[in-house]
Amino acid sequence: MLNLTPKEVFLTKGVGAHKFKLSSFEEALRNAGMAHQNIVSVSSIIPPGCKIIPKRKGLAKILPGSIRYAVIARTETDEHNRQIAASIGIAIPKDSKKWGYISEFHGYGLTRLECSDMAEDIAASMLGTTLGIEIEPDKAWIEKERLYKSSGLIVHTDSITQTAIGQSGCWTTVAAMAVFIL
After folding, report:
1. In a domain, 70, yes or no
2. Cβ partners under 8 Å of residue 53, min gap 6
3. Which of 84, 82, 154 is nearest to 123 (CA)?
4. HSE (CB half, 13 Å, CA atoms) of 121?
5. What averages of pLDDT result for each successive group of 10 residues across the chain (182 residues)?
6. pLDDT given at position 131
7. Of 94, 90, 99, residue with least CA distance to 124
8. Distance CA 182, CA 50 (A)
9. CA nearest 86: which of 18, 164, 167, 20?
10. What's the pLDDT score for residue 65?
């Protein structure tokens, strides 16, 4: 039986601009170092024991044309001066026998910090509820982050975010990804 459980994951991001929407996405993938992959979008689980590695180490482990599973956040616009953002958030439990979560968040008119905070908040909230941590959803992320980490059950949260401002006469795409290595 083929085991498709990832052993490692890395985060990457990119931005692209082009006359055509698809080419703009291709440019964002190229900027993220992922244009040479066949990307399969997957959902939000970091398997138990899966290690987070730096982007440069992850890119060194993948071959052109390989099938690469990834959680992808993507936003595009063809509106001049429109602020766009895409972010991936992660939350890792202290117990290495438990799974973690990856969230994707994307939107318009958000700053890098706002989008990053939302992505981390969503990932930590998903993990927190599976660990029995219930925190008021209306609290600010900085307060929730402190509560999650002080519980001793969530050891690490992080995010990667790409923002851009739409350019006149072309499509602008931002992408953020959590890329799995089997």
Report:
1. yes
2. 8, 9, 10, 181
3. 154
4. 17
5. 91 98 97 97 95 97 96 97 98 93 96 94 90 78 75 86 96 98 95
6. 86
7. 90
8. 10
9. 164
10. 96
Query: Does 41 fall in a domain?
Result: yes
Tokens of 170: 């072309």
Kindly state whether residue 176 falls inside one of the protein's structural domains: yes
Sheet containing strand 83-93, edge to edge, reads: 45-46, 100-108, 83-93, 154-165
Tokens found for residue 151: 């519980």
Report the CATH number that the domain containing residue 159 is assigned in CATH: 3.50.20.10
DSSP secondary structure, 18-29, as one string: ESSHHHHHHHHH
Q: Structural domain of residue 151, as residue ranges?
A: 8-181
CA gap 27, 18 in Å, rounded: 8
The token duo for 52 is 């987070």
The count of structural domains within the chain is: 1
The structure tokens listed for 101 are 């979560």
Whether residue 3 lies inside any domain: the answer is no
Reported pTM: 0.92
Enter the tokens of residue 124: 């930590």
DSSP designation for 132: T
